[in-house]
Amino acid sequence: MPITQNDTEVILTHPDNDATNVKILKYGATVFSWQINGQEQLWLSQGAKLDGSKPVRGGIPLVFPVFGKNTDDEYLSKLPQHGLARNSTWEFLGQVSANPPTVQFGLGPEIANEDLVKLWPMDFSLVLTVELGPEHLKTSIEVENTSSTQPLKFNWLFHTYLKVNDIEDTLVSNLTGSKLYDQLLKESYLDKQPAVTFHEELDRIYQNVEGDRLIQVVDKGTPIHTVKRHNLPDAVVWNPWIEKSKGMGDFEPKSGYKEMVCVEPGHVHNFITLNAGEKWDAYQLLYKDELKYQVV
Ligand code: BG6
Known about the structure:
This is Glucose-6-phosphate 1-epimerase. This protein has helices spanning about 115-120, 240-245, and strands spanning about 5, 10-15, 15-25, 30-35, 40, 60-65, 90-100, 100-105, 125-130, 135-145, 150-160, 160-165, 170-175, 180, 185-190, 195, 200-205, 215-220, 220-230, 235-240, 260-275, 280-285.
């Protein structure tokens, strides 16, 4: 069976290879495992809660309608960090294709987390599409403003936790020359380094990265993940390192920071605003490619 489901999760298996699959939790419509031929591609904390008691620490949590903690918008500022999509149970809308196996999930205010919707009383409809290829995973989002009068203002981000072998042997390429906001230094500057390397906590929002730049995660010279973005101009790169990992109750093992890097395609530097009835869409494509140095 290429697509199976139970009360809490949906599993897609590739018809050409039983060991290639993706597992999606209905809570948050969170992809929490993606294997290619038995090899896990995403990092998932051993302490992650998969019971709907909190957002999943690992996989691909969905960030909407606000990235981080907003302080100045009347309604968005009332929401917790990273919004309400990752803390809501989505509706499984079913299969849209058998090969590549593709499914959809939906979220609107009528089924979203009740307490949070009260804080942000907007009309919206989200459809997430997950497509499993032999060597790729595509997650696409469509946001519709279902109000007939009010504009809808939001951020979107795929908070993707990629698995790596050893963070100190890992670099993230093709962001050179982009402006970034360093969330730790609270400063903006131009990244002039040939690649992003990791030796301490790192939390950066790269802004307006050209759409044709592939972001690659490179392990000792070999690209292990390639990230293509559509309509997602920003990219957050995050590794919590030692102290921050210790402070996260659901981050296990505490040495887990060595085996993950978050590369998070999003639209977070500015808000997207949809007028009544308008739609917006975007996707992230995770796949395998040869080394492509587009900028050094
Ligand atoms: C990243 C942010 O996207 O998410 C970090 O850049 C943040 O600042 C991290 O710490 C994890 O957030 P959370 O809410 O899942 O602990």
